[in-house]
Amino acid sequence: MRTTIKDVARAAGVSPSTVSLILNEKPVSISHDTREKVLRAVKELRYRPNQLAVGLVTKTTNTIGLILPDSNNPFFAALSNQIEMRLRHENLNVIIGNTGGDPKITREYLRIFSDRRVDGIVLAQLDFEDAEETVKCQELLKDIDIPVVYVDRVTDDGNHVTVAVDQTQIGYLATKHLLELGHRRIGCASGPITLNVNVQRYAGYRKAFAEYGIPVDTELLFCDTLSIECGNRALPCLLGQNVTAIFAFNDMIAYGVYKECRSYNLSIPRDLSVVGVDDIAFSDIIDPPLTTVAQPICEIAEHAVDGMLQLLQNPKGKKPISQLTPILKVRGSTARIR
Ligand code: RIB
User: Fold this and answer.
1) Among 73, 202, 293, which is best to mutate for testing ligand 1, by the most ligand atoms less than 8 A from CB?
2) What is 193-245 written as a DSSP string?
3) pLDDT (tens digit per residue) in 209-260
4) Which atom of ligand 1 is nearest to the CA of 251?
5) What is residue 56's predicted lDDT score, i.e. its pLDDT?
6) What is the bridge-based pairing of β-strands 221-223 and 273-278?
7) In the prediction, which pLDDT does 83 show?
8) What are the residues whose beta carbons fall under 8 Å from the beta carbon of 146, sequence distance 6 or more?
9) Which pLDDT value is given to residue 159?
10) How far is CA 16 from CA 23, 53, 202, in A?
11) Largest CA distance in the chain
């Protein structure tokens, strides 16, 4: 049986309200002896406040739910760390839900966090490969009356605090860099092409080719998953198309290309140039260090938390939509065509 505040008050010989004042460090005059008696009773009875009961009184739980599609991916690990650090600085705790990109699990977490009365939700995926699943999540969100901030895999349905990165610019920077190095047979190793981030990265690829007046060969688009395995599978297919460079739609895919190049005795960048996306932790450590288009993770987190704080202050207030700029980081995995 869980110890209650009444048990502590009885043990210390004071009222429950006195216990509450002491535990919440309210600035009221209470004798040192009384404080000591209460704190001793708390320790002996191993009392922990019932946050659900506290929430019913204060109407807040000081908790934010963070829903991620893939906490195994260092991009999302870094993003959640940044968001959590900033929210903790605002005395807000974070509960993380990892969905594996499954829209049904995403909806489950939306219901769980809403039922647990979190104060707000940061949602890193409202866009799914199946457009019908995206609509189902949007419909569910209409019934959830708590602040939601959308980051990363967002949809452009407006009227929500949204923090996105210019995904088209990501594809454009990566492809333009390879075109400037003389590459023309540039393969794309992509995640599902029905996911907005991939659609827009490929649009950036096409934009760069259009600027060069070169038609795009759609045979050079390999669609799979945003994972290392995609890189393993993409390499033989794209080598069969005589590519001299590969634009991997995230760094994990690029790592898979690196790994598979060993099986083909290919040297990066001598035999094949590779560009990634995200600039995750290992990308400047691997050999050769990966040329990649960095997403401003700290900035994403900062905008997401600022947006959440604004919504908590004024749920009916303006809903800023931020589009952040990616940065090309040229390292050792790209070189001029031989
Ligand atoms: O690596 C994971 C990818 O999916 C990132 O590029 C991020 O944009 C997410 O959508």
Assistant:
1) 73
2) TTSHHHHHHHHHHHHHHHHTT----GGGEEE--SSHHHHHHHHHHHHTTT-SE
3) 999 999 999 999 999 999 999 999 999 999 999 999 999 999 999 999 999 9
4) 1
5) 57
6) unpaired
7) 98
8) 113, 114, 117, 118, 119, 120, 121
9) 74
10) 11, 14, 62
11) 85
Q: What pTM was estimated for this model as a whole? A: 0.85
Q: Is 250 in the pocket of ligand 1 (CB under 6 A)?
A: yes
- Residue 229 burial by CB count (10 A; 0-12/13-18/19+): exposed, middle or buried? middle
What is the number of the ligand 1 atom nearest to the C-alpha of 125? 10
- 164 Cβ below 6 A of ligand 1: no
Residues (pLDDT < 70) of the chain are 51-59, 157
Report the CATH fold assignment for 167-295.
Rossmann fold (3.40.50)
Supply the pLDDT for residue 57: 58
Please tell me the distance between residue 73's alpha carbon and the centre of ligand 1 in angstroms.
8
Q: Report the pLDDT value the prediction gives residue 1, as an integer from 0 to 100.
A: 76
CB of 277 closer than 6 A to ligand 1?
yes
Query: Domain 61-165+297-324 maps to which CATH number in 1.10.10.10, 3.40.50.2300, 3.10.20.30, 3.10.180.10?
Result: 3.40.50.2300
Protein residue whose Cα sits closest to atom 8 of ligand 1: 152
In this structure, are residues 268 and 52 in contact, taking their beta carbons and an 8 Å threshold? no
- Tell which one of 80, 162, 250, 292 to mutate to probe ligand 1, the residue whose CB is within 8 A of the most ligand atoms: 250
Is the beta carbon of 73 within 6 A of some atom in ligand 1? yes
Predicted pLDDT at 3: 85
In the chain, CATH 3.40.50.2300 covers 61-165+297-324, 167-295
Tell me, using a 6 A CB cutoff, whether residue 293 lines ligand 1. no
Residue with the smallest CA separation from ligand 1 atom 7 is 152
Pairing mode, strands 327-329 and 291-294? antiparallel
Any idea which fold 5-49 has?
Answer: 434 Repressor (Amino-terminal Domain) (1.10.260)
